[in-house]
């Protein structure tokens, strides 16, 4: 009776099924037999549109057990939108005869019982001999999809359409909804097999489409993958025949309980081969990615070394595939063309860039629009933030955390930023690290309007002089060092860090900058300094500048004590940004001098810089005493010596008279110096951070002997 289906535990095996289960396609003789059917000609066609249509048919046709097709209407609509059937009319007209022939081959073998699986597969391979392996699979899948689609369409419409009902009766199709419980394992096995067939076919298509300019097909891993495809194609066609057998068994045949097991066995067999192909495909992609990476880095290097008409090539290569920028604070999107033929500063950093750096750079950007600051000089440039989110950052934080950090920092920036830092190519990140020597600390690469690199790191120049070094070239940097900044004086040390210090530079006013993080030493020092100033009848202004590379919270507590107890002037609260700025300027001066091969032996400014910075690296405090901006009369000492000198003021009081206070202090501290000393110069980062060779010599500012180098590991969450 139509619509009745019987399930037995095990039906007698036909020769077809017996060969199906035991044939071994891995046998060399059989593999040779398979390969001998393959005689591809020059005809090629794009199989991906056909795969899309096959997937559409199979998803709609694969019934759930209440008779409702799997797949949402959203998917159906998406497929209908994406597949323009009219565009492929000619292709399908040419292939229609082949599809019909394959469908007949499968149907005839199934219903006639006149052959086993292997014979059927070999017949199909001979029929498809002129096509590539991926096309063979796609065309066989398409033939099955037509049969399965017709079966599903009739099954779905039989309850509402008289024509479908009559056809179902003549074909003796079972009522799927009525027998859903008993058919459930069969359709589940069928669905899994269809899924793995589609997956392995897509994998083979992907292997075929690998770009030949980046990978050779006669060398592993691609040669290995291609040698594995014929046997995989054989087993995949077997899977398609298994699906067809399952459908055929529902058309007037008794369904065996072993058929679901046989389909599961095929799933396992094809899956194993698919996994091997996927592993080889992964190796292929790694090789391709490596060659593309090398090519990209080569392109970037050539662009930076070859004269260009403008800066667009280098900027587009760095930002590829995006050509959109965002103004951080406003979120306004603009095209990269706004930077054409402009001087561009590429601010390169991780997502750890400190807000102090953003605050100071924002101040510099605001100065560009102030004619009083520019004083008639042409110094216009655009800044672009290029954040580097490498694998370390991706592993350390979740994508959501990295995204939040990026957006938080972006919102603080008044200049251009990239649209999506996570889209920056790995090759660009490697180029920035290896060629421009970016590690962790921010750098600023200066590009002129033609895209030439004026400086691989203009940031130290900017920290020292603001916008004055524009266009941030080596020549401009050297010119500034030879000008008013050639001498160690208060103007170089503090510049315009704080207006109070500038206001103190009056006649007969002495200024003392001091640092360290020992509050007890600070109390003793400030008390003695005030007492000495009163005794010497001079005006002495004290200013605490802190200590570099100490946690912000610790500095905040120390400055709060200094301010509360009125020990001296200092930066407090948000002003601690200027404390950071003071120290980053000194670091930048050291960087600039080291880049020019200056040492304490051959450069007076370098000697004083090294002295102050080495005092900062010690356990004690330190102090610099001077008179005004216009003089280079300065006295510098570490905490122990300067405090002892003040405590013994009566011993050099006479020498300090007649406006010789600074000179007398310096001379007395020199008397207290002993040959024994331990000077530490702690520079953040590595020699490559500073652009220095590993064997760079740094001499002690006290004895001028080469300093030993040690590794220092530091963890300071701020």
Automatic annotation (TrEMBL):
InterPro entries reported for this sequence: SEO_C, SEO_N, SEOA
Domain Sieve element occlusion C-terminal: 476-717
GO-annotated biological processes: phloem development
Domain Sieve element occlusion N-terminal: 25-307
Protein name per UniProt: Protein SIEVE ELEMENT OCCLUSION B-like
Organism name: Carya illinoinensis (Pecan)
Organismal lineage: Eukaryota, Viridiplantae, Streptophyta, Embryophyta, Tracheophyta
């Amino acid at each position: 009776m139509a619509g009745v289906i019987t399930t037995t535990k095990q039906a007698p095996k036909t020769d077809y099924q017996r060969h199906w289960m035991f044939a071994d396609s891995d046998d060399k003789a059989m593999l040779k037999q398979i390969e001998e059917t393959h005689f591809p000609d020059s005809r090629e066609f794009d199989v991906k549109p056909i795969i899309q249509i096959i997937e559409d048919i199979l998803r709609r046709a694969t019934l759930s057990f209440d008779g409702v097709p799997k797949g949402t209407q959203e998917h159906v609509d998406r497929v209908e939108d994406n597949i323009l059937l009219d565009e492929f009319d000619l292709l399908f007209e040419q292939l229609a005869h082949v599809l019909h022939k394959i469908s007949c081959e499968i149907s005839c073998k199934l219903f006639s019982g006149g052959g086993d699986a292997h014979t059927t597969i070999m017949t199909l391979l001979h029929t498809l001999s002129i096509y590539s392996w991926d096309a063979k699979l796609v065309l066989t899948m398409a033939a099955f999809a037509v049969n399965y689609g017709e079966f599903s369409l009739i099954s779905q419409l039989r309850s509402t359409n008289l024509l479908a009902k009559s056809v179902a009766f003549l074909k003796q199709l079972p009522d799927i909804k009525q027998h859903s419980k008993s058919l459930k394992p069969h359709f589940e096995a069928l669905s899994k097999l269809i899924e793995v067939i589609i997956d392995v076919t897509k994998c083979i298509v992907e292997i075929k489409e690998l770009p030949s300019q980046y990978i050779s097909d006669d060398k592993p891993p691609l040669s290995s993958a291609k040698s594995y495809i014929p046997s995989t194609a054989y087993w995949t066609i077997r899977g398609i025949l298994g699906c067809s057998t399952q459908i055929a068994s529902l058309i007037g045949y008794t369904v065996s309980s072993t058929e679901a097991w046989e389909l599961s066995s095929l799933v396992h067999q094809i899956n194993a081969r698919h996994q091997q192909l996927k592993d080889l495909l992964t190796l292929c992609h790694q090789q391709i990615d490596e060659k593309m990476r090398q090519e990209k880095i080569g392109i970037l290097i050539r662009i930076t070394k070859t004269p260009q008409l403008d800066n667009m090539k280098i900027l587009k290569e760095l930002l590829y595939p995006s050509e959109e920028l965002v103004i951080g604070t406003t979120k306004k999107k603009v095209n990269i063309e706004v930077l054409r033929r402009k001087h561009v500063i590429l601010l390169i950093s991780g997502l750890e860039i400190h807000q102090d750096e953003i605050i100071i750079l924002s101040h510099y950007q605001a100065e560009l629009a102030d004619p009083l600051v520019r004083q008639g000089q042409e110094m216009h440039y655009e800044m672009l933030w290029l954040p580097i989110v490498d694998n370390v950052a991706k592993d350390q934080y979740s994508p959501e955390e990295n995204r939040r950090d990026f957006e938080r920092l972006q919102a603080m920036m008044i200049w251009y930023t990239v649209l999506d830092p996570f889209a920056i190519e790995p090759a660009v990140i490697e180029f920035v690290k290896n060629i421009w020597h970016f590690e962790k600390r921010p750098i600023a690469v200066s590009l002129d309007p033609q895209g030439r690199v004026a400086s691989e790191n203009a940031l130290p120049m900017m920290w020292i002089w603001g916008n004055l070094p524009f266009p941030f070239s080596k020549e401009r940097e050297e010119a500034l060092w030879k000008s008013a900044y050639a001498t160690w004086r208060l103007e170089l040390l503090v510049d315009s860090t704080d207006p109070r210090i500038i206001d103190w530079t009056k006649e007969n006013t002495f200024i003392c900058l001091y640092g360290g993080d020992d509050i007890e030493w600070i109390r003793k020092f400030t008390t003695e300094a005030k007492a000495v100033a009163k005794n010497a009848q001079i005006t002495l202004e004290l200013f605490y500048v802190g200590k570099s590379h100490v946690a912000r919270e610790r500095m905040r507590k120390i400055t709060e004590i200094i301010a509360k107890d009125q020990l001296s002037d200092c930066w407090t609260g948000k002003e601690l940004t200027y404390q950071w700025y003071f120290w980053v300027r000194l670091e930048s001066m050291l960087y600039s001098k080291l880049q020019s091969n200056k040492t304490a032996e051959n450069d007076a400014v370098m000697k004083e810089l090294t002295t102050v910075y080495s005092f900062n690296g010690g356990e004690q405090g330190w102090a610099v005493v001077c008179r005004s901006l216009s003089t280079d009369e300065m006295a510098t000492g570490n905490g122990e010596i300067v405090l002892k000198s003040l405590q013994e003021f009566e011993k050099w009081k006479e020498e300090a008279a007649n406006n010789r206070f600074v000179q007398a202090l310096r001379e007395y501290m020199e008397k207290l110096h002993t040959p024994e000393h331990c000077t530490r110069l702690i520079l953040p980062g590595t020699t490559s951070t500073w652009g220095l060779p590993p064997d760079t010599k740094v001499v002690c500012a006290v004895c001028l002997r080469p300093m030993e180098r040690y590794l220092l590991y530091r963890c300071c969450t701020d």
